[in-house]
Amino acid sequence: MRRLLCLLLLPVALARGGAAQPAGGEVPLPLQLFAAPERWVVAVGQSFGYRVEAVALPSDAEGEAALVAAFRAVTLPDGAFEVVRAESLTVRRDDATGAVELARAFTLRARAAGALTLPSVALRVPGARTWATRPQTLHAYRSEAAIYLAAASVVPVVAEGRGVQRRGSAFLVGDDALVTAFHVVQGARAVRVLLPDGRRLTARRAWALDPARDVAVLYLDPGAVRRAGLHALPLALDHDESDDGVTFTAGWPGGVQRTTAGVRYPSVRFGEGERLHVTANRVRPGDSGGPLLDAAGRVIGVVVSGRGVREPDLLREDVCLAADPRPALARRLGRARPGSLPRLLTEAATTPQAQALEAALALLHARQPQASSERLLGRLQAAVRGERADPSLPFLAGSVLDAVGEREAAAAAYREALARAADYFPAAYALAHHHYRREDYAAAADLFARTQRYAPFARLGALGLAHVHTARLDYAKAEAALGEVLDRDPDFAPALFLLAAGHLARGNHADAEALAARLDRLDPERGALLRVFLGRPLLWPPALHPLPRAMIR
Hints:
Blueprint: H1 2-8, E1 31-37, E2 41-43, E3 47-56, H2 61-72, E4 81-86, E5 90-93, E6 100-110, E7 114-118, E8 122-124, E9 130-132, E10 136-141, H3 145-151, E11 154-161, E12 164-174, E13 177-180, H4 182-185, E14 190-194, E15 200-203, E16 205-210, E17 215-219, H5 222-228, E18 246-251, E19 258-269, E20 275-279, E21 291-293, E22 299-307, E23 319-323, H6 326-333, E24 339-340, H7 341-348, H8 352-365, H9 370-386, H10 392-403, H11 407-420, H12 425-437, H13 441-452, H14 458-471, H15 475-488, H16 493-505, H17 509-522, H18 524-534
Parallel strand pairs: 2-10
Antiparallel strand pairs: 1-3, 3-6, 4-6, 5-6, 7-10, 8-9, 11-12, 11-14, 12-13, 13-17, 14-15, 16-17, 16-24, 18-19, 18-21, 19-20, 20-23, 21-22, 22-23
Helix pairs in contact: 8-9, 8-10, 9-10, 10-11, 11-12, 12-13, 12-14, 13-14, 14-15, 15-16, 16-17, 16-18, 17-18
């Protein structure tokens, strides 16, 4: 926001472009059209909402009447989705500016499973022109019954030790084997397990620890497991990526079991020869250690980290990362009996992954004296150097260094992560922000474009590109990138604000005025700021036109 404010205060040094005029004698009508479903993953036959909205600035009452009539006539094709119900039209008017917001809600059902296309919605206004939304992809799956059954074998756990009390999730894979994430149990002397029948077990032994993949296999008393009615979850062999590309979690964030559904993306490299599963499931504190499941309730991986935000200034892009538990389970088969959990954790503490994680947690979650912080940073960077294949370690180091204000060292860590795995998109995204802050827009644009190629962060990359193009005064490219963002979230106020700034820069004052009406409702602070610029033409940003080149003779 601060960078955009500076941009908008630039002097008007270049000629302004006029608003685009419709061809064929059409009357110009400033209008923005949006459409999005309430969720992007649904069960077949499950009802969900689909909202079509527009914000416009009609020139007179007759133009408004034509617009309202056209919007009332909007329909959805009856193809992959059944239109269950079409709600009546709602209209909001801004009497001060004449801006009009229109909305129609539809209730749909998916007819079949798979990646389904939500069709383009057309708005035809007589005498003006036709607007259309872009097609969007929604994923449908067949049933949640297997997920609910599998969720019964997922339990909450609390790892306890000296100065340690960490909550997570775990799931049963055998009558005496409970899988969770290594970082959940790191530093613990025992792990408390809450069973479905209300009884508590304490796990003090473990079959195997795999800090490189962030997986732990704990020992549970098989008699107690049978009495609790827990059932082992099957593994999805060979990482079968069928089941319509939809995955599920069933963790215990906040001590309450919650299931999520998300789209499966191509996996990324994790160390030498390893793959990390990547999905669009939302991950919250407490989900770590739970299973990532396919539609048949089989375990694809162990949830080890993720990204899920709802802050108003951050674009919602849920990402879940899950590791392969099979190498740790293979070690369990090679052991005659479980070992002491504290002893196995002490042995695992010498690995680079465990050392990096311990140092990172200490830096991020505890107040350290300056000297102690420097020692911890040194341990973290030494752990990164000790494991030269795993891209997640330098990325972890970069994230911590960013958090403590060591920007240049953080950027170096992100570059190291990309050197180890060129497709490690979280590092590309973080490094792009570093270049953007330094106003190295060429490098930032390249990295945001690379990020955009990976589905989990595609819209984050598009938003980054929109900021870069705006900073370069290339508003047409910024608008194209913002279209991808607003396709996903039409209410994302920062994108609407950037879009309005671009319209102002190109002389489309009425389009910016219409967007201000939408921002007034969604984000009054941004709406008020936009109206400051709308009312002061000298503050409008400059339009982008090529300047004549000086010839040197």
